[in-house]
């Protein structure tokens, strides 16, 4: 527990000033984090089947292209050059034939890499875009995930009896899900009303926060399912007591994706 607390404090001391500063330093930090996420994503797969070096290299190149395009745009419409998409599909699908060996690189491997690059690249690009648009909205989204995670853990530990999805995450309970959602919605709604817009419709705000809180928790379960499939406890050990970068960003990745549906009303 001590190691976990120290690790969290160190991470906050590094990241909070960067988030508050914004600009190129935040963009660069987010880009580095995205590369670490991709590394963990590839390393997880390598537990069952190694990813060819050239395919891993291509993944890093394409996620860089996705993230570094229009990072200072304030538009809510994410843009991605069709040439990048076309090159992405060609780069990952054509080698299925060129390798001519399913044990080295198969069509399943190709779509895993394709999905990972698009999923992580778009998520991190949106995170950069949201920080550029409004720091308060950025903090609001993290308030939802952090509060939900903390109270889901506390509620589950104190009164949790009914398992949520034991085959994916044995420790998560329905009580934790409900407790985390209630407090996540309450705290994030209070933050929004106090710091962003006190005139917003309460029903719209509560509905939006509830959806995002639940989405974040089920996003966590998606990554838990991935870890269980690959037979790993954590994506890496980069944060002692916490695991890897993906272990910490699993919820916020889905919350950011879900928030795009509400960006014009919140």
Q: Can you give a write-up of this model?
A:
With 266 residues, the chain is mainly alpha-helical. It has 2 domains: 22-133, no CATH class; 134-266, no CATH class. Helix content is 74%, strand content 3%. It has helices spanning 2-21, 23-46, 53-68, 82-99, 107-133, 135-159, 174-195, 202-230, 245-259, and strands spanning 163-165, 169-173. α4 (82-99) packs antiparallel against α5 and α6 (135-159) runs antiparallel to α7. The model has no long low-confidence stretch (mean pLDDT 91).
Number of helices: 9
Summing up helix and strand content along with how strands pair, one would put the structural category as mainly alpha
As laid out across the biggest beta sheet, the strand order is 1-2
What is the 3D form? globular
* Portion in helices: over 70%
> Averaging pLDDT over every residue, what do you get?
91
- The total tally of domains equals 2
Q: Give start-end ranges of low-pLDDT stretches.
A: none
How far apart, in Å, are the first and last alpha carbons? 37 Å
Assess the beta-strand content as a share of residues: under 5%
């Amino acid at each position: 527990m001590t190691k976990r607390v120290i690790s969290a404090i160190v991470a906050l001391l590094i990241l909070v000033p960067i988030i508050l500063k914004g600009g190129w330093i935040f963009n660069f930090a987010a880009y580095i984090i995205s590369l670490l996420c991709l590394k963990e994503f590839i390393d997880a797969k390598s537990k069952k089947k190694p990813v060819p070096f050239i395919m891993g290299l291509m993944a890093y190149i394409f996620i860089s292209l996705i993230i570094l395009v229009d990072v200072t745009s304030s538009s809510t419409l994410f843009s991605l050059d069709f040439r990048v998409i076309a090159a992405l599909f060609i780069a990952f699908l054509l080698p299925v034939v060129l390798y001519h060996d399913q044990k080295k690189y198969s069509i399943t491997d190709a779509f895993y890499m394709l999905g990972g690059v698009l999923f992580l690249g778009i998520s991190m690009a949106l995170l950069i875009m949201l920080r550029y648009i409004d720091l308060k909205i950025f903090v609001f989204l993290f308030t939802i995930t952090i509060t939900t995670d903390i109270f889901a853990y506390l509620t589950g530990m104190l009164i949790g009896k009914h398992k949520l999805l034991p085959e994916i995450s044995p420790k998560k309970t329905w009580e934790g899900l409900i407790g985390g959602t209630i407090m996540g919605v309450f705290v994030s709604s209070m933050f929004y009303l106090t710091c962003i817009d006190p005139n917003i419709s309460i029903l719209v705000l509560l509905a939006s926060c509830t959806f995002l809180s639940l989405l974040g928790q089920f996003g966590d379960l998606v990554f838990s399912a991935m870890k269980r499939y690959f037979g790993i406890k954590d994506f890496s050990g980069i944060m002692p007591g916490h695991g890897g970068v993906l272990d910490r960003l699993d919820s916020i990745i889905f919350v950011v994706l879900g928030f795009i549906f509400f960006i014009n009303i919140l």
